[in-house]
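Batch queue: ligand-bound targets. Current item pairs a single chain with NAP. No template structures supplied; prediction is de novo from sequence plus SMILES. Inputs echoed for audit trail.
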Amino acid sequence: MSQVVLITGASSGIGKASALLLTERGYIVYAGTRTPEKFDTDTKNLHVIQLDITDNKSIQRAVIDIHKEQGRIDVLVNNAGYGLVSTVEDVSEEEMFNQFNVNVFGVFRVCKEVIPLMRENNSGVIINISSFLGKIGLPLLTFYNASKYAVEGITDSLRYELKDFNIRVHSIMPGFFSTNFAKDNLVTNAATFDEASPYAHLVSNLAPNIVEQINKGNDASEAAELMLKIIEDEGALARETVGDKARQFIPMRRELSDEDFERRVREYYRLNE
Ligand SMILES: NC(=O)c1ccc[n+]([C@@H]2O[C@H](COP(=O)([O-])OP(=O)(O)OC[C@H]3O[C@@H](n4cnc5c(N)ncnc54)[C@H](OP(=O)(O)O)[C@@H]3O)[C@@H](O)[C@H]2O)c1
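Prediction returned. Tokens below.
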């Protein structure tokens, strides 16, 4: 019997590449997106479904529909996310809340609806798309970093909570990937990006560098292949890295002291200049 997969934020990038790969490999995939019209496909076994992870009703509707059609959800991929670029002193209450509303509370909301179905089946796999920035901080990305650190925390705790029900929980920490992330999903704070900002020097050094690294990053298909591997391998690790930047920084983060690691990041991103 084909396994049923729900992916959030699946209209582009890593979510879309994963939806296409998993469908090709025989899974029944529900590609959740706020904008189903953007995901134009007539691929068999690929169902595009309206899903806004900030809206409980939208999530409940989607999960009920999948349950009616398939009777189960075997795999949940929490992929939807965006990045706020702002200093801490400039951020608005709304920007701060929205960052966590999507990247963190969205994961909780979808898990809350899907876990009971997995628990009834005594099986399931949950994969959270975090980031290598879920283990490494960078200036101007404090809110995004904190949201992805939180996703790492969710993975660690849920693994214990769901073990007795045979539900595996994993996180994937991508490095930079050349998706639509830099173009569509980096949200900038106006004051931080004002020429008169006391952080202007940092902004002009770091922001274009990050955008360039994302745009020249790895291909989303690599993350999709890792997702497939985790789904199919009962013994998959709790968390895996994918992409050059994650492979470069995560082992270094594990090996070096906080201070030595900070020094390396400062040098690499020229934060002392
Ligand atoms: N690209 C990178 O360098 C990189 C690196 C590390 C981690 N990641 C993570 O990988 C995941 C996928 O990103 P991507 O690189 O594939 O970027 P992408 O091509 O821009 O896709 C992001 C997806 O997230 C959803 N999304 C964005 N803002 C949202 C919001 N306000 N509310 C609900 N959904 C929202 C969108 O879903 P809709 O279909 O609803 O529009 C979109 O399909 C994200 O969690 C991101 O943080 C990306």
